[in-house]
């Protein structure tokens, strides 16, 4: 209702630049409910990056916070937004909604800047959701892309939600009542698909964590698992390796007995880290689902199904339902058997991105021109004699 009061309507883009607090999820879901398109910008990005994303997406509103907090340090989110909006090419922003997170000192522009708590107080708690077409945009998420201008990957309402929900349910073997914790920031696709939309579409309890997994003590992640009796834990090899470096200090004083499933995302996990994660965090009883996917795929593409797929340390194992991967050589010729090559997908799936915002030609160029009639992932892969990737 607040968004509607501010003149935001179906199809408008709203930039969200917030810390990992529940209000970030509220802002995203509020956009989805009225048919506005959210563009979440990772809270670690610079004012220049924020400005670039606002300009490219033509965002009408920014939702931010006075400051964020990370490992005891404050992050000047509002100041970064102020600096971004000084860019003369930013012309579309009408208001900045500010959540009071720390109460730190910030600059204020009367008429443009509005406090979150003031707006919420005045808003009605009744609202009829906007009816959406399956192919209407749900969100834009920018991938930094190794080349120049950021790419605004666009996901739609129907296919994306179906895929996020289905992959969440089967890959994490979700059962009603499970407590699920994905440590990803909401500014990345993992935070969209597997902190917010996938779990909530399945009615799961999803845990949101503002801090870092090894601060103020190396056992912080394990303590959170015990405190909230987490059943499913999804994190990144970077975090796992950082904890592994701490040895047994990473699990000191905790038993992690509530855990049932462990997941890994973001990069290939080396077998040593996989073994440590399985042994130390999961007490040698939790399957590790190593998931390969991308911002552009919307959800898991190659992943084990816990209890059904025989696991191999360091392997994402086999494709999810209906996903058709292939390995090709530099000319695009399919390679058979145990081999390595460029990883492509040869048929559609519900969660695939539909375009790059405002630049469909670049979308086709980037993902579909390298090899004809194939989605080009940009990743190399190895397939073993069991057909595992």
UniProtKB/TrEMBL annotation:
<dbReference type="GO" id="GO:0003987">
    <property type="term" value="F:acetate-CoA ligase activity"/>
</dbReference>
<protein>
    <recommendedName>
        <fullName>Propionate--CoA ligase</fullName>
    </recommendedName>
</protein>
<comment type="similarity">
    <text>Belongs to the ATP-dependent AMP-binding enzyme family.</text>
</comment>
<keyword id="KW-0547">Nucleotide-binding</keyword>
<keyword id="KW-0436">Ligase</keyword>
<keyword id="KW-0067">ATP-binding</keyword>
<dbReference type="GO" id="GO:0005829">
    <property type="term" value="C:cytosol"/>
</dbReference>
<dbReference type="Pfam" id="PF00501">
    <property type="entry name" value="AMP-binding"/>
</dbReference>
<feature type="domain" description="AMP-dependent synthetase/ligase">
    <location>
        <begin position="2"/>
        <end position="346"/>
    </location>
</feature>
<dbReference type="InterPro" id="IPR042099">
    <property type="entry name" value="ANL_N_sf"/>
</dbReference>
<dbReference type="GO" id="GO:0005524">
    <property type="term" value="F:ATP binding"/>
</dbReference>
<dbReference type="InterPro" id="IPR020845">
    <property type="entry name" value="AMP-binding_CS"/>
</dbReference>
<dbReference type="GO" id="GO:0050218">
    <property type="term" value="F:propionate-CoA ligase activity"/>
</dbReference>
<dbReference type="GO" id="GO:0006085">
    <property type="term" value="P:acetyl-CoA biosynthetic process"/>
</dbReference>
<keyword id="KW-0007">Acetylation</keyword>
<dbReference type="InterPro" id="IPR020459">
    <property type="entry name" value="AMP-binding"/>
</dbReference>
<dbReference type="InterPro" id="IPR000873">
    <property type="entry name" value="AMP-dep_synth/lig_dom"/>
</dbReference>
